[in-house]
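tool_call predict_complex ligand=adenosine-5'-diphosphate
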Amino acid sequence: YANGTAAAAAVELASPPAARQPFVIGVSGGTASGKTTVCDMIIQQLHDHRVVLVNQDSFYRGLTAEESAHAQDYNFDHPDAFDTEQLLECMGQLKRAQPVNVPIYDFKKHRRCSETFRKVNASDVIILEGILVFHDQRVRNLMDMKIFVDTDADIRLARRIRRDTVERGRDISSVLDQYGRFVKPAFDDFVLPSKKYADVIIPRGGDNHVAVDLIVQHICTKLGQHDLCKIYPNVHVVQSTFQI
Ligand code: ADP
Ligand code: C5P
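tool_result ok
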């Protein structure tokens, strides 16, 4: 208490703290730009807080067996490929500090694992990551901070070829075909235009340690203010000092 009395502090401390709302961070960017890598770096540095990562990929609509046979003709980069209503429901529950079961998506079968879910508990920070998390205004409105990971297209394509052939059961020819038909056009039509909503743009993704450090500092400051403002509603935080 910079300018308050001990009595005022005692009264404030006697009242129970209000349930706090998690701080929600959106992380967007093109395919293989390093979104997940940046999220992992942020989570590692926020080790004193409870942080959960929600992937937009978990909310891909599953293909039927028949559709799956023609998966090469399906546009996984269009906003309609996602069940955004379910994503909103899930994020709403997490914001209300309720645990949720998040689906697990199988990139080889193009559908969700029908019986397994990932249980995500209430937390201080929720990070929502995905190529189109800034596309829908209702999803954007959930976010307290928006980060766009900006990595050159040639580097992203090179990483995507390596990742999809090693981890997602694809061959080089199908990756290149999908990239030209769907991934690049959808990036130009939907992902890149959503960059304007970002508060912070990180060039070079996970290679940019300075940007990640600055973001983590900002989150810690916000979490500190958040805690103080919820517990002591009459306290106003002014930079690093605060007044009653
Ligand atoms: P996104 O979540 O945007 O698709 P990822 O973080 O999963 O991107 O990275 C995509 C691929 O590129 C992964 O195989 C990852 O290991 C690799 N990768 C990510 N960042 C780097 C980097 N800075 N240097 C080298 N490889 C990277
Ligand atoms: O991890 P990343 O952000 O790259 O994941 C999104 C990408 O996954 C999209 O560009 C989409 O083309 C691809 N995808 C796919 N097959 C699926 C679902 C998504 O290739 N079944």
